[in-house]
Design brief:
Elements lengths: L9 H48 L22 E8 L13 E10 L4 E6 L5 E4 L4 E4 L2 H19 L5 E5 L1 H10 L3 E5 L3 E3 L9 E3 L2 E5 L1 H9 L6 H20 L7 H10 L1 E3 L3 H5 L2 H5 L3 E6 L2 E4 L6 E4 L1 H15 L18 H10 L1
C-alpha cells in the first residue's frame, strides 16, 4: 500500500508566496536604494566641496556694499548685479598682480522675472578710470587696482551699483570647459590662435558648428584677428551661455567635481557661498539671458587705438539695466569731462600701457 504524499496546506502556500513577493520587492528596491543613497552622498560631497571652494575663493575688496546702494543687498530677495572679470593672468606670464581684464561682462538679475541681462564691455572702451583719475582703456583698470578699480570704473560708466564680482583667469575657463566635456559653438571663420600658455598658432579651428575643448574655446573667445573687439565680445557671451547651459544639463552633473575644482583654484569673488546659492534659481528657471554689447566706433587720436562709446546707445543701456534692477538713476559722480583730449603726454602714457 502506497503512502500518500503530504499536501502543502493553504497557510504554507501563502507563506511561500509572501516570501517570493518579498524577494521580488527587495530585488527591485535594493538597487533603487543604492542609487538613491549614492546620489544623495554624491550631492552632499559636491555641496561640501563647493562650499569649501567658494570659501577659499572669497576675497574682501574692502566694502560692505556698493556706494550707490543705500542698504546692503540680499540676492535671495533683491535684484542684484554681478561683474564678471576674465583676466589674462597665467603662470607663463607671471602677471597675477598686474593682469588686464581680457573679458568684462556686467550681469543684472531680476528676481521676480528670474531673468538676466548680460552686457559685454569691450576691452578697448575709452572710459574714465577713477583709480588713476584719467581716461584710458577699461582693460587697464584691473592692472591699476584689481577688482576694486574695475568695479569703480564700471559703476562710473554704467551708472548702476555693482553688488558682486567674480574674477576668473585663463586656466579656470579652460578647465571648466574640459570638465563638462566641451561645448557646442559656431566658429565664424577659420583661424589660428595662441593657446593659454602663449604658444603661437597652437590652436587651429575651421569655420562651422562643432564641439570644442577648453583650449579651443579660449582661443575662440580671445581671437579678433579677422574682425574686432565687438564681435569678440559677442562670441564671449555666446560661449558663456553655452558653458552655462551645458553645465546645467543632466549629463554634466557627475562632472561637477572637476568643475568645482577648476573654478575653485582659479577664481576670486566677494560672494559668500550662501549668497552664491541663491542664483541657482535663475538656472533652474530656464536661464533667460538677454545679451547686448556697448556700441561705439574706432577712435585713434594718436598711436593708441580705442573704442569710443556711443553716448546715445550707452544711455539706453544704462536705462535698460536700471529698469531691470528696478532702481532710479543713482547718478555717479565723474570728472571724466575734465579730460583734455589734446593732451599729448596722456596719449603717450596710454600708448606705453597698451
Amino acid at each position: 500500500m502506497k503512502k500518500n504524499k503530504s499536501v502543502p496546506t493553504r497557510t504554507v502556500m501563502r507563506k511561500k508566496k509572501k516570501r517570493k513577493i518579498r524577494k521580488r520587492v527587495l530585488f527591485i528596491l535594493l538597487p533603487i536604494a543604492i542609487v538613491f543613497f549614492g546620489v544623495l552622498g554624491y550631492g552632499v560631497h559636491l555641496y561640501v566641496q563647493a562650499q569649501n571652494a567658494v570659501s577659499n575663493s572669497y576675497e574682501d575688496e574692502g566694502r560692505e556694499k556698493s556706494a550707490l546702494r543705500e542698504n546692503q543687498v540680499d540676492p535671495n530677495i533683491d535684484n542684484v548685479s554681478i561683474l564678471i572679470i576674465g583676466t589674462d593672468a597665467n603662470e607663463h606670464r607671471d602677471n597675477a598682480d598686474n593682469a588686464r581684464s581680457d573679458a568684462l561682462m556686467l550681469a543684472t538679475f531680476n528676481k521676480s522675472e528670474e531673468s538676466v541681462n548680460l552686457v559685454s564691455i569691450p576691452r578697448d572702451s575709452y572710459v574714465h578710470i577713477p583709480e588713476v583719475g584719467r581716461q584710458d582703456k577699461i582693460t587697464h583698470a584691473h592692472a591699476y587696482g584689481g577688482p576694486k578699480a574695475t568695479i569703480e570704473t564700471v559703476e562710473n560708466l554704467m551708472d548702476i551699483p555693482v553688488d558682486y564680482y567674480v574674477r576668473v583667469d585663463f586656466h579656470a575657463f579652460v578647465d571648466v570647459v574640459d570638465a563638462i566635456g566641451g561645448i557646442n559653438v559656431d566658429v565664424p571663420y577659420e583661424f589660428k590662435e595662441s593657446n593659454s600658455m602663449d604658444k603661437r598658432d597652437a590652436i587651429h579651428l575651421l569655420a562651422g558648428e562643432q564641439t570644442v575643448n577648453g583650449e579651443e574655446a579660449l582661443a575662440l573667445a580671445r581671437t579678433r584677428k579677422l574682425d574686432n573687439d565687438i564681435e569678440r565680445g559677442k562670441r564671449q557671451m555666446e560661449i558663456l551661455n553655452a558653458v552655462a547651459k551645458k553645465a546645467a544639463s543632466v549629463n554634466s552633473v557627475f562632472n561637477f567635481d572637476d568643475v568645482i575644482n577648476a573654478v575653485g583654484d582659479n577664481m576670486s569673488t566677494n560672494m559668500s557661498f550662501k549668497e552664491m546659492r541663491t542664483f541657482v534659481s535663475y538656472v533652474t528657471g530656464g536661464l533667460k539671458i538677454n545679451n547686448s554689447t556697448l556700441e561705439g566706433s574706432d577712435y585713434q587720436p594718436g598711436s593708441t587705438y580705442y573704442w569710443q562709446l556711443d553716448e546715445v546707445a550707452l544711455q539706453e543701456t544704462r536705462s535698460m539695466l536700471q529698469e531691470h534692477l528696478e532702481i532710479s538713476n543713482p547718478t555717479v559722480n565723474t570728472d571724466a569731462e575734465s579730460y583734455n583730449e589734446t593732451n599729448e603726454t596722456q596719449e603717450s602714457q596710454d600708448a606705453q600701457n597698451y
